[in-house]
Amino acid sequence: MADGATLGSEVELETSRLLLRPWRVAEAVVQRELWTERDPRVPLHRRIDAAGHPTVAELEDSIRTNQLWSTGLLAVERKASGDVIGYCGLVDSGRGSEGEPELAFELLRRVWCRGYATEASLAVLDWARSSGHERLWATVWDWNTASRRVLAKVGFTETERKEVDAVHGTTLFTTRRL
After folding, report:
1. Quick one: how far is CA 150 from the chain centroid?
2. How would you write 101-126 as a 3-class SS string?
3. Residues 32, 23: contact at Cβ < 8 Å?
4. In this structure, are residues 174 and 138 in contact, taking their beta carbons and an 8 Å threshold?
5. pTM for this structure?
6. Closest Cα to residue 78, out of 42, 34, 114?
7. For tag attachment on the chain, is the N or C end more exposed, with fewer CB atoms within 10 Å?
8. Model pLDDT for residues 67-115, shown as the tens digit of each residue
9. Which residues have C-beta within 8 Å of that of residue 140, sequence separation ≥ 6?
10. Taking the CA atoms of the chain, what radius of gyration do you get in angstroms?
11. What sections of the chain are H helices per DSSP?
């Protein structure tokens, strides 16, 4: 399970293989790699644009100024090797009910299919439960079968709510009681 502080303070969660913690400025290169690896079906505002933004320097600034990357979305570090492989955490994207944050995760392609997303998500669920949340939700593209599988493994169920986008696919809404 996970050891961690409460929401709103500097959080550090630990599992048998992973450490989830705030981002360090030097790790902006990992964030940039995540941006470059995104599926072409992901909307343009979540991919590197034609001018090369966000740059590593812009991502470094977002970490320095405690934007989303360095607060709710924790860096996922493998304890054995010390390398950061992605993020997992809770965000308030404004699309869910009041007081019900969204679980979000993304890992580098080279570490897919090793159970890291499931392990990190379970740690975040424990953290959310101990912080007093009663329910979480998550969104996922209908074509993202790997993330849908992770969400099912950690107990999320798909709801009737969907957002259809003719270009990018359908966003499915899932939820889980804690």
Report:
1. 12
2. CEEEEEECHHHCCCCHHHHHHHHHHH
3. no
4. yes
5. 0.90
6. 114
7. N
8. 654 457 999 999 999 999 999 999 987 777 777 899 999 999 999 999 9
9. 147, 148, 151, 171, 172, 174
10. 16
11. 28-37, 56-64, 116-130, 145-153
